[in-house]
Amino acid sequence: MDSHLVDVNISKSFGKMDVLRDIKFDVKLNEFLVIVGPTGCGKTTLANILSGIETSTVGSVTMRGEKINPHKHNISLVFQEPSCIPWYTMLQDVTSGLCIKGVDSKTADARGREVIKLVGLEGYEDFFPRQISGGMKQRVAIARAYATNPDLLIMDEPFGHLDAQTRYLMQIEIMRIWEQEKKTVVFITNNIEEAVYLASRILVLTKLPATIKAEYPITFPRPRELTDPAFLELRAEITTQCEIVE
Ligand SMILES: Nc1ncnc2c1ncn2[C@@H]1O[C@H](COP(=O)(O)OP(=O)(O)O)[C@@H](O)[C@H]1O
Ligand SMILES: [Mg+2]
Question: pLDDT per residue over 177-214, tens digit each?
Fold first, then answer.
């Protein structure tokens, strides 16, 4: 079986500013690829190009050999800021992507309830955004992304604004969901501990213009123990590779 899903080979500049330089990597089917890099290095730009909502200056992103196209390929993107529509209930919000795709309301509702349950929010289907916490809104964003059953799920610092405790709980949750649904995930973060906790493989980006500095397959069994000596050693090694001051 061909385990390749996505091939990336791109450079990107905004005017005279080089942001991404010779970024070349692949995404394998069902892997949890984490891309880690310092703030401002071009991670969101990369996420936008991967999802097809931004174009590269040079090169391309292909899925199963075909140039990526958000209208054709089923790609979901979760942003750092949870963006719930204030007047939508949770169920309406989570099913909005399905409705756009023309799925009938009965099927959309059933799938909506299923993914709300998947992210642990069963019973909150009729709640509005003002009635739920930041952590719950981020779960809604994840449920919305899963609802369409995407071939590729891209998460751009999805837990960046959460407090440490909620962030840790969300990391456990996202692993549980990934192990259950086995989607292909590209997860972007500037947090090395989070990267080592979650990843099947890590790509380390340099600061601007971003290039790929190192690649680490992560083979520790899951669930991972943050205080395990081997975990701490790898975390320290990646920290020295990555120009992030923790
Ligand atoms: N649309 C844009 N036009 C011009 N510059 C941009 C645009 N988007 C991002 N940038 C610049 O590209 C660089 C990388 O930004 P970004 O991809 O958001 O980094 P990160 O997500 O790693 O913090 C920054 O210097 C930012 O100001
Ligand atoms: Mg960003």
Answer: 999 888 999 999 999 999 999 999 999 999 999 999 99
Please tell me the distance between residue 62's alpha carbon and the centre of ligand 2 in angstroms. 22
| Residue 202, Ramachandran bin (φ over 0: left; ψ between -120 and 50: alpha; else beta) | beta
Atom of ligand 1 nearest to the CA of 39: 23
> What percentage of the chain reaches a pLDDT higher than 70?
98
3-state SS class at 178: helix
For ligand 1, whether the C-beta of 96 sits within 6 Å is: no
| Residue 49, token pair as written in the block | 């190009």
Distance CA 163, CA 230 (A): 26
Q: Is 14 in the pocket of ligand 1 (CB under 6 A)?
A: yes
| Among protein residues, the one whose CA lies closest to atom 18 of ligand 1 | 44
48 lines ligand 1 (CB under 6 A): no
Domains of the chain: 19-73+151-246 (3.40.50.300), 84-149 (no CATH)
Where does the pLDDT of residue 244 fall: very low under 50, low under 70, confident under 90, or very high at 90 and above? low
| pLDDT over 70 (residue 246) | no
Q: Which residues pair with 188 in a beta bridge?
A: 35, 156
Lowest mean pLDDT among 21-30, 71-80, 219-228: 71-80
Of 13, 19, 34, which is best to mutate to test ligand 1, by the most ligand atoms within 8 angstroms of its C-beta?
19
